[in-house]
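Form P-L/3: holo structure prediction, ligand flavin mononucleotide.
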Amino acid sequence: MANINVIDAITQRSSKRKYLAKPVDDETLNKILTAAQRTPSGANMQPWTVYAVRNVELLSKIGSDVIDHIKAGGGLEQEIQYYPVKWINPYKKRRIVTGAGLYVKMGVDRKDNAMREKLWHDNYRWFGAQTVVFVYVDKALIDGSEGALIDCGAYMQTLMLAAQEFGIDSCPQGSTTEYGKIIAKTMEVPENLALLYSVVLGYEDKDAIQNAYQPERASLDEAVTFLD
Ligand SMILES: Cc1cc2nc3c(=O)[nH]c(=O)nc-3n(C[C@H](O)[C@H](O)[C@H](O)COP(=O)(O)O)c2cc1C
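OUTPUT (holo model):
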């Protein structure tokens, strides 16, 4: 998929959860990251601090450190709480429908805990991809204000849409947010940085059934109020 228009890129992007073992090359990665630098931000603050990792040993170590922590019964180690503490509808229902839809597509029984755990841990194996972008924010920017989080969210979408231009698939990850402190330690990032999320970049395995999953969206009527 190359040279696509913006609406096509938006429509065709979806989260891919199985990749070929092939990194994104230097030139393409630079072009994607250069495009993402154009993301707008309040006062042009550009609050994202980005680590693009293609060192497969390091990626493996980051993932193993998280999985070992989980297996040892460790709790969340996060700088920010991404998901709601209390889920209410309609968001709760959307979460359940979206998760169930993926399991149905993959033929996974919701009671198959071993398989569900494997799929969760696949996040920390980067779904087999070899390029992961970790987006950090300076803790000083989220000490009493949240605007930087809005900017960094916009950065995520710019990055993923720019990737589409080059035929690079992606999956945003809040699963890494939840263990951000562990990941920051393994990556040896400065103390002032908090991990917000990661984005896996790569080439989808087109034979993987989970990659064909495209969850529905609420209708415009539900999402938008027109005040004419
Ligand atoms: C901030 C954020 C965090 C996410 N975290 C994860 C994650 O940890 N693992 C995962 O498989 N998908 C994750 N997703 C992907 C969402 O599940 C996905 O975007 C949503 O279901 C809509 O599907 P689509 O991206 O295929 O359109 C995340 C998406 C966002 C925006």
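COMMENT: The chain has a mean pLDDT of 96.
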